[in-house]
UniProtKB/TrEMBL annotation:
<dbReference type="InterPro" id="IPR037663">
    <property type="entry name" value="Mosmo"/>
</dbReference>
<feature type="transmembrane region" description="Helical">
    <location>
        <begin position="101"/>
        <end position="123"/>
    </location>
</feature>
<dbReference type="GO" id="GO:0060170">
    <property type="term" value="C:ciliary membrane"/>
</dbReference>
<keyword id="KW-0812">Transmembrane</keyword>
<feature type="signal peptide">
    <location>
        <begin position="1"/>
        <end position="26"/>
    </location>
</feature>
<keyword id="KW-0472">Membrane</keyword>
<dbReference type="GO" id="GO:0045879">
    <property type="term" value="P:negative regulation of smoothened signaling pathway"/>
</dbReference>
<keyword id="KW-0732">Signal</keyword>
<keyword id="KW-1133">Transmembrane helix</keyword>
<protein>
    <recommendedName>
        <fullName>Modulator of smoothened</fullName>
    </recommendedName>
</protein>
<dbReference type="GO" id="GO:0005794">
    <property type="term" value="C:Golgi apparatus"/>
</dbReference>
<feature type="transmembrane region" description="Helical">
    <location>
        <begin position="69"/>
        <end position="89"/>
    </location>
</feature>
<dbReference type="Pfam" id="PF18800">
    <property type="entry name" value="Atthog"/>
</dbReference>
Amino acid sequence: MDKPTVISGCLFLAADIFAIASVANPDWINTGDSSGSLNVGLVQQCQTIHGRDRTCFPPQLPGEWVTTLLFIVLGIISLTVTCGLLVMSHWHPEATRYARWIAFTGMVLFCMAALIFPIGFYVSEWDSCSPGRFAFPADAPQSLNSPLQGVRCSKGSEM
């Protein structure tokens, strides 16, 4: 296995880890109010009311966010398969050709997810927030950077 293949494999693994962490994190949107907070993620929504214990439950997602979740899960699967193929390419060099195409597909899926996600910001919880914009009290937490880091790593490993 040559050095660029090893570097690509490490970057794909990092992108895979970032994507899994971003899906598992309920802090995609955090209102962070002093009296209570609402944290919304793609698979979990958590609410804290006036200092009580944090309550988490599955959210009712708009269609755009369900599509985003589907693209991210398919991207995670494609990056995991790519990492497996790159390891297998040590013994079967022809596996590298398939790994490139599957990785490219994963990168396209992550890019589509990044493009579609902001369209879902018309949810009523944010009082008539227009599509593609964050509501005033809500801000993008650091965990929203995880999908973007995944796209950057997969794009960097494609080069």
